[in-house]
Backbone:
């Protein structure tokens, strides 16, 4: 079967080429910004919710690397001939790295959401295991149909694996909805509840873009189609990674502050959102060192 | 339509080529310095204003990446023939990445300004949303007319999209002026008021460079024109990102110190500007751990 | 002797090529995520167990660099001809860097395990020395037979050095089993015991993949064989480095919390796993500064 | 006018080529070491003097990037023919990046010196503004004559712009001497006074190398001349950036310790130089949280 | 004089080529691991000994960069012809960068050793100045004979500069022995004494490899010779940088703990080695803020 049908094998006009470079670069830079910001702001939430910040940080870090690769491969994968850009054998690599990224980042999105949700202990761990597995299988089966089999040009394989991938997507949707609904009930009356609901809606809506784009792959193949596909996916990645990550970070801050105010946890610095103070900084208690401490082996009692 | 009209398609003299490399490199290095400095100094302001430091950090980080790309593409985009540098098909990439950078950094500049301004809560969030949208649309519509349509050589498109972009610019100007005037009133009598006013003026004046350069694109196209365009934009980026960022950082320090002195917040280290002490270091209060703490599940009362 | 027998000299189909790039990239990104996360979370465990976090951090950092190299060399080592990818002289470099990585990371895995185990003092140091030596010799002798002699195509050398390498592997297995069994006894009744046992089992099972793949090298050489080899090793690296590292990190947290609760150590922030609190944050005691302190030479007594 | 006169257009012997690579690489690595060390040691001085550490960090970071560029361009700019290395059109880029670096780092050197000097408030800010302007103009005018006009081969332009640049250098010298003399008087009797004086002398002496090398550019042009120029400038950069930076860091530590001992500032860790203790660690006071703190809006009084 | 005599101009067999890549890569990765680990663990020793940790960090950082260069240049410097790898004009660059590294790292090794030794004040500074100078001169004179003069093929120059370099080596040996013997006496009875002695012996033995390899350069020149030279130097670099650095880090921890136990210094976290506690965490005293503190200008008394 020929490669000619794949969207990344369409010839691009100058404007289409410009717009794709623009979309890929802007997404890459936005992801970079969130990555660096997360890297230096892990201490603004308490340890209880910090896994959410770490997840957001690694998601955007990975996606940034993936977009660097996309930009480089897009530059190498098309050659200018007059007023057109003609794809070469590498053009598929300006598309496929999205799957590499998603295979790792979608499981991390599940971790990110659960880190600030209201499940705890074994229940949280069970749901997390299910979510990570579903997310991994959703992307890897999608990769088989969308890229691996006949370089993504086999419509039958596209549909078969698309359906299998879709089953795991349904599992993920159920999981996300369950977590958000439960969280909304458990956190009712706190500002975190509204943000959690919005984050859930954002995820559910944004994720719809991916199967639509996946399906489009089997249809039209002009330069305009691949241009739209790249622009929509770049925008979806910004929303699902940077926008969603910002919401998770906000929930983590709101819940950290709630814990500090309730005396459940301590945080040495005051928490603020939009110049409104959520909680004061509080230091933990001091240990009482007993007389044998200087020998380095003393037992200690907590002083209170 | 031919590319011949675009400024990046002018042949450069040796001196013009040298001066552009110089301008791009100096701007890149200055942005790098501010980025690294911000990365390690986030703890010098309190959490209330830290979003301003994060914004300055990510703005300069993104712009540094963009200038690395500009320098590399400028090296690849021109070929030496005798005493001239002749542009090739890549030359546009020594210009277009500025739009990639601005699309992310101008919205971040809005966040940076609002982080140290005097709006709070829903009002701050509303204004921020408007500002981010206006900034994004200002740059992306500018990109359509200035680069995407006919590679930026279509004077009609340049004017049409320039006007649309300009409308968003007016919205941004109104927003900045409103924030600065309100801040000046709210902070009246404090040193932060003067710095906020200066930062606002700096932004308003520097930003004028961008539409002027945008307009120039449709006019003259000798090597001298593109040289001036590159030099002015490099200088404007230094002023609007490093200079403005320094002012925002100063306001964040001044306001943090004011909060510490007023007992509204704590900061473990003393704040100084130009060897003058603004506030002493203050630790937060200590939590009182109750007797069940050792079991890891105890409720705690704040000791005071 | 010809290179033709080595698995990396098999011609790949398009799908095989895609799947190998996918496996290498996904492993690389997962390792990157764990590396960055470890880098910023070293303060979540007490100093006693932190060597385990450092080991996990450097293991994934090194493996990430190694996978970057594998991806680049895989791109350079095969050339597309029609619907096939034909290996060139560089193809061996899309395989050999695994040995460079393992030579450093397997000894570090020993350090990682011992850091959270229950051996202390001279006994710990002795076992660590033995384990590091066995791990280094296991990999370096494997490299001699699997890559260095006749570019890994000499079946006799493969078997000879494979057996020598296997002897060191047996030593490592004995060491791991001893540490895990002893740890299970010493920690009996704590949650750390179960996690330590699981981590040991995971290591023992995963490591079996490596000699199997090593042996396969002397057998079949179609594209399917090298594809399976690359996929299995990539998966094994994720499990043995990221999965195992997460378990070690969990043990380090559990044991840190146990120490804090027992008053043996302090940690300024509360420890949580899956939203369950393990220990409260506790500050250490304060030193009593005597009157000569201002001169900078005063002796001090610990205040308690 | 021909390029033949510029020093970077001389053919190099094998030994000259080796020595230049050696000088550039050693300088680059030394700058890297100071950069990384500064990056992680910013908390060893109090906030009052930390701008000096930041300046040293960014100066060496920028200069490291610049030397990476110099090494790469030196590799690309000369081609081996038998036992000689013959420059090509890129050879100027193994020289010109020094100006890119200096344009940013010399103003930062002014900030570095003033950060630990004894001026405060408006006087410090005024002097800093003058120093930054003079430093920027000194280098940028030097660049015009030394590189931009006729690729640095126009002896008339070299002299004209050299003299203009020299005027700004005189201003800088007066500034440095004023700051050092005033600092020597203000700090008389403290160890910081001697180090400040030595730092001033070191700067004044080292900076003399730059105009001498600048002047040499118009004279001799054999391989030996460019070799000496590269070696001397590399050495001068090490001394003026790493050596001077170490002195500034020492002054910052000495003055921080003095402030801690005098009760003007706090620093949580003891300061030591060469195993001699300068000051004990001191924590700041604790805020008294009033009863409304749990609501997150309470006013607080400092407890003392 | 021909280059044919230099060891880097010998043709390599496939196995020799593999082994050199292996040795260079393993050394590079081990150095990377130590660099990253040092970067995040600087707070585990007190400020008094931290210069030793910084030195170990920058030594391994620089050496890592150097090995990256060696690996890249080794890949570029040899070309495959049948079953051999034939050196080209760049082959010398897979050897010479070792000198760039050593010129900076050997002086840093002196700083590393002295940072944890028992000399203080002016005596320490004097010895450090002598050691840095001797180390720099030992390497730079070695570079002249071993690389610069006739590309290292002039046996007369090799011997002349080798002897000069050797004189500085003797000075370094005397210095190291003096420091270790004096340290052994001053620290007698503490665990730090034994580790310091071992570190000294390790340095003295490992350094012997370098002059031996240097001398070999003038003798045999087959592929086996350069292979051994590269392997031995890679191993020596691991031992002298990572092994020695680990010992210095251990001494720094042991002495920090001793200082904390003796009340000479404070460290907020407990120190442990191999699961044995060396010292408890201790906070410094709190400053007493007087009534004028809120104005930001108050004098303070230390509260005790």
Residues:
């Amino acid at each position: 079967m020929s490669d000619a049908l794949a969207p990344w094998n369409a010839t691009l006009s100058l404007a289409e080429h410009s717009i794709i470079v623009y979309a890929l670069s802007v997404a890459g830079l936005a992801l970079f910004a969130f990555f660096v910001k997360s890297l230096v702001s892990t201490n603004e939430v308490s340890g209880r919710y910090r896994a959410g910040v770490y997840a957001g940080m690694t998601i955007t870090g990975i996606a940034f690397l993936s977009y660097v690769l996309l930009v480089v491969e897009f530059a190498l994968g098309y050659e200018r001939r007059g007023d057109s850009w003609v794809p070469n054998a590498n053009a598929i690599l300006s598309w496929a790295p999205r799957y590499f990224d998603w295979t790792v980042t979608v499981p991390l999105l599940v971790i990110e959401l659960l880190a600030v949700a209201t499940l705890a202990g074994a229940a949280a761990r069970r749901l997390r295991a299910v979510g990570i597995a579903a997310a991994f299988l959703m992307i890897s089966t999608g990769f088989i149909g969308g890229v691996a089999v006949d370089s993504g040009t086999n419509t039958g394989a596209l549909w078969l694996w698309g359906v299998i991938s879709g089953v795991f997507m349904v599992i993920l949707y159920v999981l996300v909805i369950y977590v958000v609904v439960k969280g909304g009930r458990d956190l009712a009356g706190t500002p975190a509840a509204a943000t959690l609901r919005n984050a859930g809606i954002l995820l559910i809506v944004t994720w719809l873009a991916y199967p639509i784009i996946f399906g489009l792959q089997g249809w039209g193949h002009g330069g305009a189609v691949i241009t739209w596909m790249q622009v929509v996916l770049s925008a979806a990645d910004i929303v699902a990674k940077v926008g969603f990550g910002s919401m998770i970070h906000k929930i983590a801050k709101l819940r950290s502050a709630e814990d500090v105010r309730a005396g459940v946890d301590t945080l040495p610095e005051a928490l603020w959102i939009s110049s409104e103070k959520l909680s004061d900084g509080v230091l933990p208690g001091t240990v009482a060192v007993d007389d044998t401490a200087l020998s380095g082996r003393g037992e200690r009692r907590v002083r209170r």
